Structure formats: C-alpha cells, structure tokens
Amino acid sequence: MELNWGVHDVFTLEEYGENILGARLAIPRILQLFLQYDIHATWAIVGMLYCQSKDELLARLESLDTPYENEAFSAKSNLWQVGEDEIQDPYHYGKSLVDMINVIPNQEIATHTFSHYYCLEDGQQTAHFAKDLQAVFQLGEGITSLVFPRNQTNNDYLNLCKTYGISAYRGNEESWIYRAYTSKTNPVTKRMLRLIDAYVNLTGHHTYSLKNIQKEPIINIKSSRFLRPYSKQLAVLESLRLRRIKNGLTKAAKNNELYHLWWHPHNFGKNIEENLQFLEEILKHVDYLKANYNFQSMHMRDVADVLKIIS
C-alpha cells in the first residue's frame, strides 16, 4: 500500500489520481473479502503514509538521504504537491487506512520501506537504506516483513534488514523476465512477456515448498504471481487470467506448496467492481482448496513462524 508515493515518479496526479482515490474505496472492500474468506494477508505499507501532517512528514524526511542520480525518484521531489493532512490530501496520507487494516483479524502490517526506497537505482548506498529502515522502526509497529519497492531486491541489503529485525522479504519469481530491474533495465520485451505470462503459462506457476525456501540471511518468500488489474481492452481474456491463477493455486494445494499472490490496492482503483469480483473468484477457489486439500492461507509472518518451528 503506497498511494501516490509509489507512482509519483511515473504519473502525474491528473493521470493517475483516480486510481489512488479508488484504492481508498477498494481497501475496505478487500478487507471485508479477506474477513469473509478467512484470508491471512500481508500489507506492506510505505512509512510516509503514517504521517498525519505535513510538519510530521517533513520532520521524518529530514533525517533521510535520498541521493538518487535521478532526483525524480526521491519523495522529497514530490513535496510541492503534498497537502497538510489526510482530509485535505488523500493521495499522500493514509493513517486511517492503516488503522482500518489493524482491526481486521489475520492482517500483517509489513513495510514497503519508509520513503518507497529504490534499492538498485544509481546514487543510493547502504548507509542511505539504513536510515530509511531506522525511520520505519520509529513507527513502532513491530514489523518483521519487507517488500522492496519495484521489486528491486538488493541482496547486499538483506543482512542489514536482519539487523533491524526484518525476518522475511518477498523475492521475485525465478525467471529472467522477473529478475530485479532498474529504470534502465526494463525493456519493452520483458514487459510484454510478463503481460503474456499473466494469461498463458510461459514460465510455470512458481510454486515452491517450505523446505526449499532460502532462509539466509533472511527468509525469501518468493512471488508466484502479480494479480494484474482488469483491462477493458483485454476483457475477452479474463477467463485465461483467472484460470492461470487457479491452476497455480491448485498445483500448490495438491503438492503442499506455497503460492504467493500480490498486488497494489491502487491496481483496483479503476474498474473496482470488476477487480473485486475477480478477486472473489480467486478466494472462492482458495475456499474449495481448503476444504479438499487442507490448503491454508498464510501471511508472510505466518510462513516465517512455521519455518522457525520446523527448522
């Protein structure tokens, strides 16, 4: 969950603001579906969303370095359009949403870094990332799981994560088209192949067993599938997209494996009804797998806790 902090360097508010506001409508309905189907979910939240005023945001950002060669990546470059609080500016504040998530059972609060920190972009260094993690833990949530923004997994930073109490992160799928990339290393070819893979099985289902999870220096709970949003242009292919996910879940259930599905709330910000209906179809299938194969829903901390028991 990142609201505009996750896309401010890609889109203007005029271009993407509807998605951000729509995310605020989608989140309570996603939570109700999770409650209805007993889903354990991890919410990796950008720390800046906790701030309740611009003064607080500026004070917390003051201690951070965001020294990217491309200054547009820095949250500080976006401060000119940030309002005074969540009521005035629903694009950049989200404490009420965090509070909403906290009252729903089996929802894990994780971090998406404090400043939506890009761990592979030119200019940033380990010391800068350490300051960002310090800002995360000043929020006081007891966070143990992390999702790297833009999936820029930096293996050199995993030991640092461990130092700050992070025990698990979401790694990327094991395919060259999903390998961690920067703004300079994400060609159209790879983007097109990832799109096709959402509908047709190009790279496998990316399910895996607990015994094969990388545990050092922290646990790598790899992604299996990004839940792409509904597209009117590709609506005729919706049944393929759903079947792709259901087949992966079924494989995981039958083989006692994990299947890690993820998305951003703002992906549901347009076509909210279509996206929520699609999600519910997935959750109905999970319910079927629970009844027939003893499948379980787990968030990232659940997985880490199980691994501690069986290790």
In the CATH hierarchy, the architecture is: Alpha-Beta Barrel
Give the CATH superfamily. Answer: Glycoside hydrolase/deacetylase
Structural class: mainly alpha
Reading the helices and strands in chain order gives HEHHEHEHEHEEHEHH
Find the count of extended strands (DSSP E, 2+ residues): 7
> Number of helical runs?
9
Main sheet strand line-up: 3-4-5
Oligomer: single chain
Major β-sheet profile: 3 strands, parallel
Contiguous low-pLDDT stretches (5 residues minimum) are none
CATH names the topology as TIM Barrel
What sort of overall outline do the alpha carbons produce when their principal axes are compared? Answer: globular
State the distance separating the first and last CA atoms: 31 Å
Helicity, as a percent range: 25-40%
Mean pLDDT: 96
Please tell me how large the radius of gyration is: 19 Å
- Number of individual domains: 1
Q: Which CATH first-tier class would you pick?
A: Alpha Beta
Strand composition percent = 5-15%
Can you walk me through this structure?
The protein is mostly helical. It has a single domain (3-310), classed as Glycoside hydrolase/deacetylase (TIM Barrel, Alpha-Beta Barrel). Helix content is 38%, strand content 6%. The protein has 9 helices and 7 strands; from the N terminus they run H-E-H-H-E-H-E-H-E-H-E-E-H-E-H-H. It has helices spanning 13-36, 54-62, 95-102, 126-137, 158-163, 188-197, 238-254, 272-293, 300-310, and strands at 41-45, 107-111, 145-146, 168-169, 219-220, 225-226, 261-262. It has a 3-stranded parallel beta sheet, with helices on one face. Strands 1-2 form a two-stranded parallel sheet. Helix 1 (13-36) runs parallel beside helix 8 and helix 7 (238-254) runs parallel beside helix 8 (272-293). The protein is globular. The mean pLDDT is 96.
